[in-house]
Amino acid sequence: MADMRAKMSELYSLEQLSSQKSSIHALHPLSKIIATLTYIICVVSLDGYSFSQLAPFVFYPVIVIALADIPYSMIWRRALVALPFCAFAGLSNVIFVRETAFYIGSLPVSFGAISFFTIIFRTLLCVSAVLILVAVTPFAQLTAQLRRMHVPQMLISVFEMTYRYIGTLVNEAYSMSTAYKLRAGDKKGVQMKDMGSFAGQLLLRSFDRAERVYAAMKCRGYAMRDALLKPLPLKKNDYIFTAAVCLSCVLFRAVDVQQMLTDVLGRMM
Amino acid sequence: MHMADALLSPIVGGAMCAVSAGALAYSAAKIKKDELCEKKLPIMAISGAFVFAAQMINFTIPGTGSSGHIGGGILLAAMLGGFPALLTISAVLIIQCLFFADGGLLALCCNIFNMGVIPCLFIYPLIFKPLTKKGFNAKNISLAAVIGVVVALQLGAFGVVLETLASGITQLPFGAFLLAMQPIHLAIGVVEGIVTAAVLCFVYKMRPEILNSTRSRTAISSGVNMRKIIVSLAVITVLVGGGLSLFASAYPDGLEWSMEKVAGTTELEASGEVHETAEKAQEATAFMPDYDFKDANGSGTSVAGIVGVCITFALAGGAGLIISKLKKKNKS
User: Which end of chain A is more exposed for a tag (fewer CB within 10 A), N or C?
Assistant: First the structure.
């Protein structure tokens, strides 16, 4: 159960990072959202064998992580969540696609192996792009931007409030499961026969609490539409950042820069 | 069951985005019409947070010693109604995607469809509600919950299989992938169904009005809307999927390319003059040259390729390192 709290601190640790100050944090949330989406679309639109063409895409996460002071461990730990399923899908390619692509010395490398590494690499790139976006954009700014982009009001409100309630609820669940554990002897986890009343109790208690919290929020002037939502004009830096990221992504996607480097090296060797 | 970006093609992602965004917008509009919508907001949010927290409580499955956790679509739909449940589960999926890298950003809409739209807009009105039509009691809540969750998970898993294979990144044969996904999700579904049933029974015993009010409110209008939803979702899918693939077929990758590949193209083994000419023509016409290792005939080029990739990584790493160093220097 200790992992419950660990998971919660993991949830809010990204938000802590997003309140730091850096040139990337200062950018307009819209430009960061556009850059992230362009990046991901360019990465996934390459086919499953383009390991080398994907290579230049590594510049974006590395540079932004350095500029924004995000610890690498943060990205790695979360990437591990996405990896198993991707690795499973990638391994199947190793098994099913066995044509040899090339030899390293006398070691044959199959197309399947290339695609395996490509899938793992794609996973890392996409995961880091999303995490970077959240780590450099404060939560309130992110939701305000989504509102400006006319995402349904109700969805954003539920998203915001769910995010906030998780902390409260996990604490509640944590104390309940500690209480359960203390009475349950050396049993691991909650017994299935108790799960209904355990989870149900947690839910009903939270319902009442949520209503009280919401009433308190309303008393303090919360409305579903953010009253303070003002248009946030884009600055010069925002345009430069968006243009730089988008253009380089499209360039790396359209022109195989890596292949050019390979050709040059091939001629030299 | 969360799909990742890495296994998805933009065409499939885009088509699913259109479908899920349509379903979300429709649900949001539907809820807005409900005058109790504001009152529902905290309940929706707390239910979302509950699903999240409940996923962290491991419970032991009797006899096996292994542990499972709670899913959520049907549970939420039974308590909140289909449309609010869809928004709630979407919020949970967005949080999982953004803060835990569980499911990708482009794949988010696939996940919303597989785990939200299917249980909330299809299984709930078509299976759960008819089964509890005669009123609630422990027996029919349990039956409806177990069947609903199992069917929803099976369809969801099937959705994952279809979306992944249509993207063509993995070469898993359809049959093998299906065999890997469906039985696992059957087992998960039974366990999750039992837990969902237990929670719903408890809620019904303590606060019957929660389940009753949801059912009576959504019962009035659902029959007509279902058809509308299904038809419009289908139209959106076809339009966007078709539009995107028209655009994509201008260059030979993505869906079309992978289909060709699965069908067993000789492209991989092709070599010699014809292949080179064909490839040159392809490079000239294509938006981008196709995958790179294909023309690696000698080991010289492949070694050059590997060295090249290493150089790129080293350059990127160096750039990162220099920026970090400069930043630290500026700070101190």
Answer: C
Structure tokens at A56: 């230049």
Chain B hits for A129, Cβ within 8 Å: 105
Which of A49, A67, A142, A203 to mutate: most B Cβ within 10 Å? A203
**Pick the residue with more confidence: A60 or A204?**
A60
Q: Which of B248, B276, B310 is the last residue of a domain?
A: B248
pLDDT category of residue B185 using cuts at 50, 70 and 90 = confident
Residues B205 and B319 in one domain: no
Average pLDDT over residues B177-202: 85
Contact check, Cβ <8 Å, B292/A41: no
Residue of B1, B39, B98 to mutate, interface with A, max A Cβ within 10 Å: B98
> Chain A partners of B2 at a C-beta cutoff of 8 Å?
85
Whole-angstrom distance, CA of residue B154 vs CA of residue B114: 10
Token readout for A228 is 């303070």
Range of the domain at A90: 20-137+233-269
Compute the nearest-CA separation of A232 from chain B (Å): 23
Same domain, B48 and B180: yes
Q: How far apart are the C-alpha atoms of A80 and B159, rounded to whole Å? A: 23
A7 found inside a domain: no
Yes or no, beta carbons of B308 and A170 under 8 Å apart: no
Query: What ipTM was estimated for this complex?
Result: 0.86
Q: Closest by alpha carbon to B105, among B168, B14, B28?
A: B14
